Amino acid sequence: MDAAAAPKNRPSRSQAPSSETLKRLKSHIGVLSTAALKYLDQQLPWYRSLAPNERAALGLIAQKGISTFVTWYEDPSSTPSWVVTDVFGAAPTELTRSISLQKALGLLRTIVEVVESQVPDIAAEHEQAALREAVLRYSREVAFAAADVYARAAETRGAWDSRLEAHVVDAVLHGEAHDSLSSRIAAIGWKSQKNIRILVGTTPSSNPATFVSALRRMAIRYSRDSLVGVLGDRSVLMLSDTKFEEADLSRLTRFFGPGPLVYSPLAPTVKEMHHAAATAVAGFSAARAWPQAPNPVSADDLWPERACNGDELARTALVEQVYLPLQQASNGLAETLSSYLALGHSLEGTARELFVHANTVRYRLKRVSEVTGWDPLVPRDAFVLQTALLFGRLHESNL
Fold it and tell me: PucR C-terminal helix-turn-helix domain: from which residue to which, for each copy (predicted)?
């Protein structure tokens, strides 16, 4: 076939290396390796700061790269796909743990400079240009191989971190022992383990990985640490040492899918995380029973819906934080509240029922608000108070 008709994309070299050049190149492998390691130590400060075993791992890669170049230079028609295994197969884990990709490419650049500096001692003058070109081509393949190694290492770390986060979320939801949970949280890199808030919302239909990364980027602006767990159609966000008030949680709603976003009360420490998570999960399960609820909504604001949905934590909260304080207060607060609610929120009707002045009813209802934190003159608060009376009476009847 005529040379002009040869395919243009076929890799070729204008001049094959002479046997003498190959012989000298092979004999210089040791010299090149020694020179490269010496040059790394002199020119790269970060290389000198590495631990001895880390320098040894990188030195092994450098030596392997030089020896593999000689093999490739002898037969450049072979596919470059083996570069990843031959060069980086010696210590890919140590490489990605010890240095960044930028430093790895700097290391590669340094080795190339060393090899180029030795070209005059290895090849005859008429072969030096071809040898330098081969070094550049080979270094390009090794650079691509390095990028591939780092990309795969990052994917592996990402998948491992996701599994760790999923295990932590599961441990929190199932109430794992405090010591074990603390060690798990420390393993995922949490530096703060106080003032923890947990949010539960709908998982969006978009790519879960995209959702998780976007949510984490936003969350880290307002908390010291964050953790995201995707549990099917619902997702859990855990924040530690939060830097914003409850009202600011609305900034996170756009990352979740349609539906309620429920947040827990603050858990002072990891020990209380399970209780906070349980309230948030129960609130999410019951939130649809209150269509007019704000979004996001506190799990404590959903006590009535949670209690009716079978949540014992909500029933206990209604009894202990609302019903019992009313019973223990003076001036017949519980009786006045019960009559007021039963008579359609009528002040005059309640006054006639109890044979007191309407202003007395107003005073007692104000005291109800002060004792419980729920205002009977507000329709939603009145519903919470009525639910508390219901479950409080049931509680007393079961004693």
Answer: 333-390
